[in-house]
Amino acid sequence: MLNEKIRELCELLKLQGIYQSYAYISDKASKENISYSQYLYEVLKSEYEIKDKRAKETLLKFASFPKIKTIDTFDFSFANVDKKLIDEILTMRFIDEAKNILLLGPSGVGKTHLALSIGYSATQKRIKTKFITASDLILQLKSAHIQNKLDNYLKRVIMPSKLLIIDELGYFRLNELESNLFFQIVNKKYETSSIIITTNLNFIKLKEVFNDNEAITTAILDRLIHHSHIINIQGESFRLREKRKAGLLNFGSKNS
Hints:
- By secondary structure, this protein is α/β, with parallel strands linked by helices.
- The protein is 57% helix and 11% strand.
- The model is unreliable at 252-256 (pLDDT under 50).
C-alpha cells in the first residue's frame, strides 16, 4: 500500500526518477546507516539525473545533427586551429554574450566537425541548439514564405534556439528573395542569440552568394561580425589526406 501511495504521488508531482530509485536507495540507506539528509540528497540527485538525461535527449533530437562529433576527435595539429580559443568557446560564454562564430576555409578542413562539436557540447549543457545546412534553410524559408507561414516557421524552428548552426554557406548563389530571407534570420538573431556559420568563401567572395547585392551583404556581415569569433582554417582536406595516405591519390593540393 505504501509503495502504491508513493507511486501515485510521484506521478502527480512528475517525479519518476524518485519512484524508480527510492526503493534501492532506501535499502542502501538501511544497510549503510545513511542519515535522513543524505537519503533525501540521494533521491533528489536521482530525480535530477533522469530529468537531465531526458532533457539532453530532447535537445539532441531538436538539434537535428546529421552525426555526433566531439572535440576529442578533432585533429588540432593538422587543422592548425587555436585550441585555447576553442576551449574558451566550449565554455559557452559566447552564447551568454550572444556572439557568433564564423568558420572559414576550404572544403574538408574540419569546419563542420568543429561546428558539430560545439553544437553537441551546447546540448550537453542543456542549451537549445539547431543545426541546418544553408541549402535546407533556404528551401524551408522559401516554402514557409510561399505558404504565408514564415512567421510561424521562425517562431517554431529558428527563434527558440540559443545557438543556430548554418552549415555550408557559399556553395550556391542566392537570388534576391533568398538573400532577403537569409538577412531576416541574421537580423532576428542579432544580439539576442548566437549563430555559427561555416563557409568555404572569404568575406569578399560572399557578396557573390548574396546576389552581388552590396547593401544586403554588408548588412548581413555587419551583424554577423560585430560580436564574433572568426576562425580561418587553411590546409589540405582531411578526406584527401586520408586518400593520399591510402595511395589512392598521387597529386598534391594547394592551400586556398
